[in-house]
Each structure stands twice: as C-alpha cells, then as structure tokens.
Amino acid sequence: MIDRRGLPAGFSWGASTAAYQIEGAVDEDGRGRSVWDVFCERPGAVKNGDSGRIACDHYHRYVEDVALMRELGLDGYRFSIAWPRIQPTGRGSVNPAGLDFYDRLVDALLAAGITPLPTLFHWDLPQALEEDGGWLARDTAYRFAEYAALVADRLGDRVPAWITLNEPVVHTVFGYAFGIHAPGRALMLDALPAGHHQLLGHALAASELRSRGREVLIANNLTPVWPASVSDPDRAAADAYDALHNRLFLDPLLLGRYPDLSAYGVSADLAGSVHPGDLELIADAGRLDGLGVNYYNPTRIAAPTDPSLPFTEVEIDGVPRTHFGWPVVPDGLRQILLTLRARYGSALPPITITESGCSTDDTLDDRFRIDYLAGHLDALAEAIAQGVDVRGYYTWSLIDNFEWAEGMSQRFGLVHVDFETQRRTPKASYAWYRDLIAAHRERRGR
What we know:
This protein is an alpha/beta fold and 446 residues long. It has a single domain (4-444), classed as TIM Barrel (Alpha-Beta Barrel). Helix content is 39%, strand content 14%. An eight-stranded parallel beta barrel has the order 1-2-3-4-5-7-10-11, surrounded by four helices. Strands 6-8-9 form a three-stranded mixed beta sheet, with helices on one face. It has a two-stranded antiparallel ribbon with strand order 12-13. Helix 3 runs parallel beside helix 5 (96-111), helix 7 runs parallel beside helix 9 (192-211) and helix 13 packs parallel to helix 14. The chain is globular. It starts with 11 loop residues before the first strand and ends with a helix. It holds the Pfam family Glyco_hydro_1. InterPro entries: GH (IPR017853), GH_1_N_CS (IPR033132), Glyco_hydro_1 (IPR001360), Glyco_hydro_1_beta-glucosidase (IPR017736).
C-alpha cells in the first residue's frame, strides 16, 4: 500500500452533505415545495415512510454542525443549496429568508477556517417546475441559470468555486427513467432529454458564475465498468453501460459530443432535445475548472437478458459489502481516475473526490468505515503517484442523514445522529479522519 504521505501538500480535506438530506424545516421561512417533499408522500416510495421534513434539523443546528467541522479540521465543506428555499416556485421573486440562511452558513464556515463548496442542484427541484415538465422541459435550464445568478450575487463574494449539478446521471436514471427517486417518473430511455437539459442548465449557470469571476465544477457518479467475461457480447454490453453511466455527461463537456448510444436505439439528438448550438454551448460556456468525482463501487456487466436494455448488471463476488449491499473495491477509485486521464487527456480538468464513503450498521465503533476510507485513500494516493491531478477528498458524509428512497435506514456519517433527539455523537471514524488530517498537515508543514 502507498503511504498517504503521497498526497500533495495543498491537498484539501473535506466532507459533504446535501440540503434535503440534512436541513429539515421544509415548511419554514417561505421555502417552497420540492419534488422530494411530494415523492415522500407517495405511499411506499420511501422506506418506512420516512422523509426529509425534519431530517437532521441542520437548518436550526448549523452552528453545532460547523463546530463539528472545525474540530474535525476540515479545509472544505461541500453542501447544497435548496432551490425551493431561494425561489419557492423555481422562478421569479427571491425568498430573502432562504438566502439569509446560506449567508449565515457561509459566514460561519469562513469564521471556522473552512472553505464553502456549494452545490446548486442536488436533486430537490421546486415542485412547481416539475409540474411544468421538470428537467424534461428545456425552459428549466434557463430557470436554473436565473437561480444560479441570484445565489451567486448574494454569496459569490465569499465563495470561490461552485458545483452546478450533483450526479445528473443518477437523477436522470433513478428519477426519470426508473422512477425510484423523485420525481418518480418511469420513462426508461425517454428520460434522456432530462439529462441533456441538465447539461444545458449547467452551461447557462456556468456562464453566470464565470461572469462573476467564480470557478465552476460539476460532480458526477463514476464507476469502472468490468465485463463479466472476455466474450464479445459481454464486452459490448460493458461498453454500452459505460457510455450511459460515465460518458453521457462527460463527453459533451470535455469532447463536445455525446457518446454513441446506438446500442440503445437512441439517435445523436437524444429524441430531438439537442438543438443546434447546444453542444458548442455546453463545451464552451460549460467548460470545467474542476471535475467532481463521486465514487462508491465498480459495476460488473454482462450481455443483456432483458430485451429493453443492452446490458445486464451482475454481482461482484468475493469482496466485502457495505450495509447498503454495495461492493467495497477501493482500487476501483484508482481505476476510474486512470480511465478518465487516458480517455480525456489534456481536456481533463483537475479532479476533486466530492463523495466517497459507506453506510454501516448503527454503531459508534465503525471500524468498517475506517478501513473503507483508508483503503480508498491508499487507492487515491496510487492514482496521484501515477500522474492523475487530484486536489482534494470529501467524504460522504459529515453526519448521518436522510438517504433518499432508503429513508433513515442507511447511515453514512462520521457523526451519529439520533433522529429522535437530534443529538450528534462523533463516531470512531470521526476521530480517525481528524487525526489523519492533522498528521497530513504536520508532515506538510501547514
């Protein structure tokens, strides 16, 4: 194993969260309804009928949470801004109380010596926009740019870099194709325009941010794709999956074109959603100052058994599994980083690992998480040693939270949250991460 001394001196240590997963206060201070508020009310949509109505009550307890970050020694904190808190209907007038909350949060972070890294969209679209078509409607991209400008005008003087979208591939596939996340549409391949409109929204928002002198990133879930065998059908299926999961949202940004989706029977214009000039706008105005990589596990793919898709996902055997059931393969992080460098070359911007973590049983002695983080950081150091430009590592997540369709049943936090009392208790992994950050700083003379 490579000693984590291989991480560079300016390496940024962070932790991540998302608005709907931790804030609560969904009916307070003028916040509008989001697609997740509505989805959680659908019977059977979320495990145990849970919702983010209260979540971790971060809206009222952010001072306590920032104190935990300060004690942890974080360089940066990645959080998301709830669009419905800023514009309750997704357009038009601003809700001052919403901006005031994020203003206080940013000031508290800066006072603690922590750099804010906000994400503008982490899946909580204003419900009013969803009723007008959501991300299937091209107009949503323009509304997103308007929202980005409003937030940047208020916070941009203190926030140097912004993430526009979180995991557009997951939002498109789970939210619009399979219907297992909000907004709960099950459109299969007809969901692809929602992906294109997110990229268009990214480009328009990036233009607003860059005109104000800010840096722009996007964060996506990426996975190394392993063919189940060396057979041609399995290899072709793996290529098809890679095109959908990894390349659909990076090729347009870094190469100016969509990958070949003919295996899905999808044309280059994604069912007519790609207008003349769109790809040029995405590659130019949407150019990246940094890429956020969210990594959790590899994916093993075989030839299709279901005629509706050109691939079949198969289990990865012989490895540990998280409480979620996800396979733990730290070297997959090294693999996907090397793949990105080989695939995009000089077009690839500096990378930040914007999510990396695991769910474990509800225990404070989370040795499993410590081993998980240590293994992934070793893999990251290997990738850096092999020439990949990685600037930081943000673990998912700071605190236990509402885990989307799994409700409160999956705990990813360095800090345990008692959802009845809202008591925060640092876990063993919190102390380990704190000590790791401190040791890195000491070695590097920071």
